[in-house]
Give the backbone structure.
Amino acid sequence: MRSARPVDDWLADPAASPALKDRLRLSQRIRAFASSQLGLPDNPSYRRYADLHRTAAVWNVVAAPPLSLTLQTWCFPVTGCIGYRGYYSEAAAREEAAGLRGQGLEVSVYGVPAYSTLGWLNWAGGDPLLSTFIGYPEGELARMVFHELAHQVVYAEGDTTFNESFATAVEQMGRDRWLASEASPEAREAYQRFAGRQRDFRDLTRDTRRSLEEVYQASDAPPSEKLAQKEIVMAGFRARYAALRASWGGDGANVAGYDRWVAEANNASFGALAAYDTLVPAFQALFAKVAAEPGGDPWPRFYAEVRKLADMPKPERLAALQALAPS
């Protein structure tokens, strides 16, 4: 935040590259769309830009037991208990990871391009655009801004899956609307290729999570048998990914991130992924339900319904969302 400057300052800076200026102009169109078309907050966030001179905003550490996808939680003021711990230093994150592995946990460390201060720091200029994601493809840049702004709308303390699934639902619905109405045909076509791979991979990991959960929840199986079955599921996951990767063609540079994720995949990485998509279909169904009712712009009414869910006790909230999810 200290290194952030208003976008207009960067646009007037002769030292800033033309490519960066183009992305910043695009970001401000996206920012305006977020508030005018998606009902997201109209505040100082994402109207400034900062070059972090590093590859990630933070590095998250996630951990899970050998026979569970349930993430270990850490508790903090304001945010409550969450299923990850973030570090500004990758070395510090990996040191934490090593300690958790020493406790017998499966651990994953991954770079995060952006995070939300939940609107608490808008008085100080708000969350800035960052060098870690400003170069993303147009659809990805849009969804990133929509996702992080959604965290400023609703945040349920101590419920990572609710918060991230809600923000992911907003980002996906908002991204689709942006691409349909604002993006060029070339940008739409390029993003469809990118999104197709993303969708294929998400489907594969979702199927694998279900298989792992079935193994772990088998009450009559001893741990040794569960571990053996887990290895079979993971081998199947890697084989299915190899076939999927081959179907994508030979552009290795664009799948390197998937390759790395698969090579390091474990309960922690699968559990972290689940937080971002488990409840997305339920939130999308809720939006469709609200949009089908009379009353004008559905976005404010959708957010009002999500706030009601956030105010419920966690078990009731989950039950209400599960009732909404398509079968």
About this structure: The CA atoms of residues 208 and 236 lie 9 Å apart.
